[in-house]
Write a structure and sequence with these properties.
10-stranded mixed sheet; alpha+beta; two-stranded antiparallel ribbon; about 15% helix; 5 helices; 12 strands
Length: about 260
């Protein structure tokens, strides 16, 4: 503390050891930080206490990349993918990946409270890490949350591994995915079918009639149309049916805009 108060410019922790009042070895600074590192589980429980017990709890999870291509001595660097941009314009870079689950307290606003924020190590993957974090968070929540996930989590492994967690999930889907409907009734001969008709997101000829269609006027993006289909599943998750939602922006005459539609599960 004396060195911090008396050092005008310190570009690294080791610079504090140059101060005359610093009488310990320079490594003791790092040891002090290591010893006072807060316990993540206790921090999470403290944050959860700030969540109001009234209303639906909204959580959001995502995987964030931190590019470190020139840090050759950094341990356990992994290959990280950027959805947009990237270091030097390259979509894949070497660095660290982080998994975050946060509480979204407001409908309008840009801030959120991270409940878990941890690095994805070299022997983990984003799906397993987020599943573990979601399980830890839901253990202490007062009610069943509604969670939102990006395209990376719109897959069968995520659905299977979160099936027994007390949380509802809304996931973005890639537009080139193929889903399957409910199988027909058993005919009495041969092995019962597991899958029904194919439902290709980018082929409207494979779509059945939607269970519901809604058109609304949004103040920010204009008129939108929402279509919903029920009881669809991934090929590897026949016992985990999902509702599929298609969100489209419409022109003034009601026709669909050229902008890419959004698929949700």
């Amino acid at each position: 503390m004396d060195a911090v108060l008396l050092t005008r410019n310190a570009y690294s922790l080791a610079d504090l050891s140059m101060c005359p009042v610093f009488r310990r070895k320079w490594s003791s600074i790092y040891e002090a930080i290591q010893d006072t590192r807060p316990q993540r589980n206790k921090l999470m429980q403290l944050y959860i206490k700030q969540i109001p017990k009234q209303g639906r709890i909204i959580l959001a999870g995502d995987h964030t990349a931190w590019s470190r291509p020139e840090a050759d001595t950094l341990k356990e660097r992994t290959y990280e993918h950027y959805a947009q941009g990237g270091f030097g314009g390259h979509p894949v870079t070497v660095g660290y990946g982080y998994s975050t689950i946060c509480w979204v307290p407001e409908m309008d606003g840009s801030w959120s409270l991270p409940l878990r924020h941890e690095r994805i190590t070299g022997w983990e993957n984003p799906i397993d890490k987020s599943v573990w974090q979601l399980r830890q968070v839901c253990r202490y929540l007062p009610s069943r949350p509604l969670t939102f996930w990006d395209i990376e989590y719109g897959c069968a492994p995520f659905v299977i591994k979160t099936a027994n967690i007390n949380a509802d999930k809304v996931m973005r889907l890639r537009s080139n995915l193929c889903l399957w409907g409910e199988p027909p009734e058993y005919s009495g001969q041969g092995k019962p079918r597991v899958h029904g008709d194919k439902f290709k997101l980018n082929d409207s000829s494979t779509w059945e009639e939607p269970a519901q269609i809604i058109e609304e006027e949004d103040t920010q993006i204009g008129r939108i149309r929402i279509r919903v289909w029920h009881n669809l599943h991934f090929r590897k998750t026949p016992h985990h049916p999902m509702s599929i939602i298609l969100v489209e922006r419409l022109n003034a005459d009601g026709s669909s805009r050229i902008s890419k539609p959004m698929w949700l599960a």
